[in-house]
Amino acid sequence: MTDRGGIVAAATGAEALSTEEPVGRSTGWWGMVLFVATESTFFACLLGSYYYLRFQVGPQWPPDGIGNPELTRPLVMTGLLLFSSVPLFWGVRGIRYGRRWRLRAGLVATMVLVVTFLTVQGTEYVDDLKILTPTTDVYGSLYYLITGFHSLHVLGGLAFVAWLFAASLVNSFDPQHYDRVRNAGIFWVFLDVVWVAVLFTIYLSPRL
Amino acid sequence: MSTTTTKPPGASQEDLSRLEEHWGEPPSLRAWFSTVDHKKIGRRYIVTAGLFFVFAGISALLMRTQLATPESGILSPQEYNQLFTMHGTSMIFLFATPMFFGLGNFLVPLMIGSRDMAFPRLNAFGYWVFLFAGLFMWVSVPFGEAPNAGWFNYAPLTNLTFEPGLAIDVYNLGLLFLGISTTAGAINFIVTALKLRAPGMSLNRVPLFVWAIVATSFMVVFALPALNLDNLLLFLDRRFDTHFFDPSAGGNVLLWQHLFWIFGHPDVYIIVMPGLGIVSSVLPAFARRGVVAYPLVVLAIVSISILSFGVWVHHMFATGLPQLSYSFFSAASTIITIPSGIQFFAWLATMALGRLVIKVPLLFLIGFLFTFLIGGLTGAMFAVTAFDQQVTDSYFVVAHFHYVLLGGAVFPMLAGLYYWLPKVTGRMYHEGLGRWAFWLVLAGMQLTFFPMHLYGLFGMPRRVYTYRGDLGWDVGNLIATVGAYVLAAGLLLVLIGVVHAIRRGRPAPSDPWGGDTLEWTTTSPPESYNFPVLPQVHSLHPTWDERTAESIGAGATQDRILSEGRRTLFTSELDARYERAVEMAESTLIPFVLACWLLLFFISMLFSWWLVAGFAAVAVVVTMGVWLWPSRRPAEKTG
Predict the structure, then answer these.
(1) Is residue A76 part of a domain?
(2) Could you give the CA distance from residue B109 to residue B120 in angstroms, rounded to a whole number?
(3) What is the distance between the alpha carbons of residues B135 and B133, in angstroms, rounded to a whole number?
(4) Are B243 and B251 spatial neighbours (Cβ–Cβ below 8 Å)?
(5) What CA–CA distance (Å, rounded) separates A104 from A99?
(6) Which residues of B touch A100 (CB under 8 A)?
(7) Do B191 and A177 touch (CB under 8 A)?
């Protein structure tokens, strides 16, 4: 501490030494984690409301005349969404080593899988609407709100990834600056976990 | 003791001019809309929340005038319903929380030794959204379409059958709109407190006010989604014929109450907790010692914020839920008195062991202890189910929560106002005027709300626009009305005191009180960059600590001056070890533009202009894309 404020201190001080490699969590990481925490709480309340209303209605659930929801397409969708995380994380790992082509390829593959997910969801709605609408009864209201709200988040995720892809084309990310890409990864974990909860609640729990 | 003109010697004159160049903002119209300075945003929050306080206070005075005598006809029942709804909704959502967020915005970076909040632009965005959401709700009043079903807006009263028109939609959409601001602010506070503390300020050296704001923010993050969902469900029921609250199609009206109070009880602590934090932060300066049992007070803050999620059913003791749930929630509500008691006795012990300096802020603290104690005692009574069922929805409840909220939030707020006014404005307030204000506020408060305990027990229900003269309620009501005017006069004196200080007050030194936290080491008002040298913190009371003072004096190293660029420090979350210097966001118009698109979105939702709403939603997404667009980096930088 003899050379406080001098040139030696400026070159060997903590600031100079730590600029090489980012240390510690960034504010962006914390911000994203907290955003995902509050969004997850929203879904928890939504699914809690589903169970509350279900048990208030009584043993007949779904109500008379509405069979259990079809299971094939939701299982396909589960596969699509969970699998869409793989190229995303592969791309995130790529940019950590400066491989931009890997990031771009990963983002494109994720987009393809997500668009397929949303398309399957759309065909499912087309079939469902023939027997059930959001205004039929509280079951219909819950079914469309929960699945629709999750799909809205998937759509948001798609916009997020498309935006990242556009940014990656102008060479915006490198191993020191890929916070935004990694945040997409955090968001994807959230989408996956919420979807699994939705799958269990909407599609599996009526069969129990 | 330094004055406003002398600079601490740690940073050279060139450093200071470079800092000013990077952080300063020459005043212009554009700068007014684009600033991201946490001090300016904090001041705006405080002034705007103060404006909504005036609106909500005038509503209360009108109601008290109507209730002064039996069967008076000053207000129609419809007007009365709108007034009590807007009074409650504004006091809770547009005054209490934003006022504390404003104080937090101004103080948290100063208290932790940082140059800005973690997300400066998000901070500016939060303010604009708060302003627009507040105006969105209040503009409904002149049109006679203000929310009118009480601040907790129970279904089925709020179903389309009983509430045609836009009033309830204003409530639903207004709170959803405001929720964006509150959530953004809460996340910003948490991240700021985790990453931006001065080196050396490990968690056991964080000021209690910052602890309180962080605990509050965590409650917001986990409680607000329940309210947002509730408002979304009701909006869908009203506009799109869904059936969430419609028993004829399998819905359930109690769902509204559950979701509302899962948010609502934490919200009581969201309002009171920062107030308690202010008490813990103001007290040391006037007791001349730190708060007794700091670790226990921190534990109390944390445990209250967790327990507050387990007590919501005590708002629903009269709804016919199973007895077992009553027992559970009654016990939980009783347990929460323990951490509250720990804090209370810590303050008493601090005062008993310290040497008291009687100034206006301390007077308001004593007023707080007295008032909040009474509110707490009646609160413990409500935890007992049998008692609760007798007095629920009577004026006894009104008396109870006004003691809690005026006692727990407004008194500390006023203590904080007088305490930090020199720091915010650079001017001292007039002590005599402040004392008059204190005595009027205290007397007015007791006169207004104490009689409500009595005529509540005599059976007067809340939310009635008038009453018959032969029920024994008239004397109490008259006293309460007189008290309300005394209280208003006291609050007017507070306002006069603030204006007087700004216009005529003598210049404030850096540290007029001998306070213990870091904001007192910088000038009054602080420079745009807050600290010429970011301090190295060595104790819980950095301003009373010589080594910390040395760290900002001569010989301070460049890694804490950071005058090249608009920079501040990241430190590690727990121990606040030095990590790296970071570049902070500069001023921009984008947050304002984004808030405008959101305003357009919510207005078009209110009037069912679906095409406009769709356009605004796309504009929101595009604006966010522009906001967060990463800066361009050349390809050769990668390996």
Answers:
(1) yes
(2) 11
(3) 5
(4) yes
(5) 9
(6) 635, 638
(7) no
Identify which of A37, A167, A171 has the shortest CB distance to residue B634. Answer: A171
Q: Which of A30, A37, A45 sits opposite B229 (nearest CB)?
A: A45
pLDDT at A17: 53
Q: Do you find a cis peptide bond into B525, omega within 30 degrees of 0?
A: yes
Cβ-based neighbours of B95, under 8 Å, separated by 6 or more: B49, B50, B52, B53, B56
Q: Are A115 and A81 in contact (CB under 8 A)?
A: no
Q: Which two tokens stand for residue B533?
A: 């040298």
CA-to-CA dists, residue B149 to A148, B205, B323, B356, angstroms: 30, 45, 28, 46
Burial of residue B625 (CB within 10 Å: 0-12, 13-18, 19+) is middle
Among B234, B94, B103, B105, smallest CA distance to B178 is for B94
Q: What are the pLDDT digits (tens) for B14-71?
A: 999 999 999 998 899 999 999 999 999 999 999 999 999 999 999 999 999 999 999 9
Q: Which residues 6+ apart lie within 8 Å of B510 measured at CB?
A: B1, B2, B3, B4, B520, B521, B522, B523, B524
Residue type, A120: V
- Of the candidates B187, B224, B251, the beta carbon closest to that of A138 is on B251
Query: In chain A, positions 59-88, which contact chain B (CB-CB < 8 Å)?
Result: 63
Q: How many whole angstroms from its chain centre is CA A200?
A: 17
**Helix H or strand E encompassing B578:** strand B578-583
**Domains contained in chain A, number:** 1
Count CA atoms closer than 13 A to B264's CA, side-chain side.
Answer: 20
In angstroms, the CA B371 to CA B401 distance is 11
pLDDT one-digit tens code per residue, B575-595: 999 998 999 999 999 999 999
Q: Of chain A residues 129-188, which have a CB less than 8 A from chain B?
A: 134-142, 145, 159, 163, 167, 170-175, 177, 180
Q: What amino acid is encoded at B43 in this protein? A: R
Give Cβ neighbours of residue B472 (< 8 Å, ≥ 6 apart).
Answer: B455, B458
Q: What predicted TM-score, i.e. pTM, was given to this entire model?
A: 0.94
Q: Which residue of A has its CA nearest to B12?
A: A5
What confidence score (pLDDT) does residue B42 get? 97
**A37 vs B: CB within 8 A:** yes
Structure tokens at B271: 């309002």
Q: Which domain does A133 fall in, by range?
A: 28-207
CB B193, CB B112: distance < 8 Å? yes
CA distance B322 to A55: 14
* Residue A6 located in a structural domain: no
Instruction: Give the pLDDT confidence score for residue B1 in this predicted structure.
Output: 43
| Residue given tokens 């670790």 in the structure block | B295
Closest CB to A180 among B226, B621, B630: B630
In A, minimum Cα distance to B533 occurs at A5
A20-31 average pLDDT score = 80
Q: Is the ipTM of this complex over 0.90?
A: yes
Specify the length of chain B in residues.
639
Token reading at B573: 């979350």
Average pLDDT across chain A, whole number: 90
Any A CB within 8 A of B248 CB = no
State whether the Cα torsion B298-B303-B306-B308 is positive or negative. negative
Residue A7 lies in a domain: no
Nearest by Cα to B368 from B301, B442, B318: B442
A12 located within any domain: no
In angstroms, the first-to-last Cα distance of chain B is 54
- CB contact at 8 A, B637 and A172: no
Token pair of B456 as six digits: 């509540």
* Residue B13 touches partner A, C-beta closer than 8 Å: no
DSSP secondary-structure letter at B117? -
Q: Which residues contact A7 (CB under 8 A, 6 or more apart)?
A: none
pLDDT at residue A14 tops 60? no
In order, the DSSP letters of B184-250 are HHHHHHHHHHHH-PPTT--GGGS-HHHHHHHHHHHHHHHHHHHHHHHHHHHHHHHHH---TT-GGGT
Task: Supply the CATH number for residue A174's domain.
Answer: 1.20.120.80
